[in-house]
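Forwarding these from the shared drive since the link keeps breaking.
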Amino acid sequence: MGDEYEPILTQTPRRSLEREGHFGIKGIALVLSVVSVAIVCIVVNVVPLRQNPPGTTLPHAIHTPNPIIGIWSQPASMFSDAEYIAFPYVQWIESAGGRVVRIPYNATDDELGHLLGKINGVLFPGGESELNHAATFIYERAKAINENGSHFPIWGTSQGFQFLLQLESQNESILDQVEAVNSSTTIKLVRGKNRLFGFSSVFDIMESEPVAAHFHKHSMLLDHFIAYPALNSFFQALATSKDRLGREYVAAIEARDFPFYGVQFHPEMNAFEFEKRDDGELVKSIDHSLNAILASQALANFFVQEARRNSHHFETPSAERAAVLSSHQTTYIPSPVFQEFLLFNATL
């Protein structure tokens, strides 16, 4: 947020105070004003200001205009010794002014420690991978980075959203089964102050139009979430959705004191995922309308803006260029969810 300046006031001639053995009312007021200012100055210098918890969206500085997001790659079941990142995640981040590097699925603690010190945020994508030690390390290290004064966001989409719940609860069996594969729905925003949906009034679209693309068999029912203190004390449920059986489940969360955010739906699909049958009909239930794109873009803008709030960076521009995926070739592979991928050698 930019500095605020008080207007420059032009000086006007002032009449001399009349000296009749006392200062008069105006003189007393002047003395009291000076004393008040002195007291305020003493208090400001002696009493420490309250520190904002990590993740708050109070006025803040932008440290990195073009942040770099690490996306966690996953094992590619169709190839041996390969990992992938679905390309729409990269496009979604880049559409908001960010860039992307890969976080290897089985990266070592040392590799992750070095990389997390260079990037500005992490995205756990959707998929069908197993929660592993690397994911746990990323989550705990991100907490430590925030506790040490750096604003370091995490975003989870679909399975990535589920990972956040599992990691915080330390319970991989916490999820509930739902019927929400290949469906596009509205979401119900939970009223109250929050950072994510308070970012833009565009999100009101999501309550009235079915723009949220769901491709998941698991989530967490709202009643289950409310009854789980270890989770609802750390995360705030921001929105809910209903599956085909009418069961209400949590659709969006944010951590109360950390910049950690998750959505059960796929905002990257609205603008970047298309697949048609031979008859021209879209295979997936994805809304590509203008309003759907606006909501998707606002979510990307929010997350990338959060990542601008820390100053992590690569040592040199050449090291940065070697890491970002902007020139990495994509591969087209028909699949039930995504069609275009970035493939990597899992041993590298």
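-- next protein --
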Amino acid sequence: MSDVQAFYREMNNTFKVPESLWDNIPKVSENAAVIFEPRVHPNLPFTLRNHMYYLAPYNFSLTIFHSKENERQVKEITGDRPNINFICFCEGNSTRDIYNDTLKTVEFYESIPCNRMLIFQTDSWLRNFGIDKFFDYGYIGAPHYNCEGDIMNGGLSLRNKQVCIDIIKKYNNKDAHQWEDSFFSYGCLLFFPELFPKLDSAKQFSSCWQFDERSIGVHQFWDCVVDPVKRKTLMTLHSYTFEVNS
């Protein structure tokens, strides 16, 4: 874990983006980046800069669900720009159950004007461009097991908004599959099998429980990927060229 902590320290200090990147984020777009983070979190600066840097070519809007507690931090990072969507959803810290229940409601998806959304967290990052390769799936995240048709991680996941709404309505019981990533993984496979990614595509999207050097993103891989060479690979960011003084 010390290698990951060192990575975050370095990235929070050195991974910068031009002011124009924040200025050019659309208020509304067919693609939306969405994060729930109620905590004052040391890794939030890198998390937001990193994701929006690699999403910039694909015209993603940004919606931040924050708390009263970390509102100042969130707005300092982003410059409190009017083109960014800030939603204060709680006073202080929240719970995992609230997060899961929220993501299994039609109201949540209908509150964000888009066709597809990338859900990301402070323990995820993108390693490269190329997310458009995965736009046609109903739901995609890092695969849990090395087999077809199983759970895909939700901490970094790309979702078709209408597919998610339809899954919720078809299940008609948000308690089915307690964790939201299981809920949507199995829902997509059951109701929209033609939009469910093959195992190899999910591996190319993100590494979490399993390592794949091709993955464009990662989510909390450090508990499962123990080989130091593989860990270093996942902490290598590609095509990052911005210089602070440029």
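The mean pLDDT is 93. The chain has one domain: 2-234.

- D.
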